Amino acid sequence: MRKISEEYMRLLDYIKNHREPGMLLQYRVVEEETGVKMDRDGRDKLRRAILRTGLEYLVSKGEGYGLAAHDTVMEILGHKVIAIDSRVVRANKAHRTLESQFFASLSEREQKQILFLGSVFGAIRLAAENAKLVYGKKDLPQLALTQPVIPDNL
After folding, report:
1. Cβ contacts of residue 135 below 8 Å, gap of 6+?
2. Where are the alpha helices (DSSP H) in the chain?
């Protein structure tokens, strides 16, 4: 069984007492109040502690973690979709390679499954591209599209 560090326990206690929606958990303040050094390992422990307490967050680079609030819900979900995109890019590359090498030797059912998976990867990539446009870097010019297109019948 994995041993839980004393530092991680201090961070869990800290978050349990500082969990207001939208609150920014600044690295400097967390370090001062908990005694846990906010180097790479400390920040990782803080992030895991946030997730362990059932909260979601946004990264404020160089400052800390902002806890989720009603006005950050779509931004958080957009970032999650963008993170998925990098994994799907690799999966899509493997899909194309395997399809080109073995498609003809697959059964008709397997060929249909390969084609379906290709469309699934494409749909995920499209959603990720929309999320990048909406929730990407703030210094990019804003486009007319402000929300991802989501069907009403879901």
Report:
1. 74, 75, 78, 79, 82
2. 6-17, 27-34, 40-52, 73-102, 108-135
Read off the pLDDT of residues 2-42 as tens digits, 9 standing for 90 and up.
567 899 999 999 999 988 999 999 999 999 999 999 999 99
- Total Cβ atoms within 10 A of residue 12: 17
37: phi then psi, degrees, rounded to nearest 5: -65, 130
Place of tokens 């970032």: 79
Q: What is the pLDDT of residues 97-124, one digit of tens each?
A: 999 999 999 999 999 999 999 999 989 8
Give me the amino acid identity at 149.
Answer: V
The CATH fold assigned to 6-67 is Arc Repressor Mutant, subunit A (1.10.10)
Buried/exposed code over 91-109 (b: 16+ C-beta within 10 A; e: otherwise): ebeebeeebeeeeeeeeee
Are 22 and 69 contacting, i.e. CB atoms less than 8 angstroms apart? yes
Query: If you count them, how many residues does the chain have?
Result: 154
CA-based torsion, 108, 114, 116, 122: positive or negative:
negative
Burial of 36 (0-12, 13-18, 19+ CB in 10 A): buried
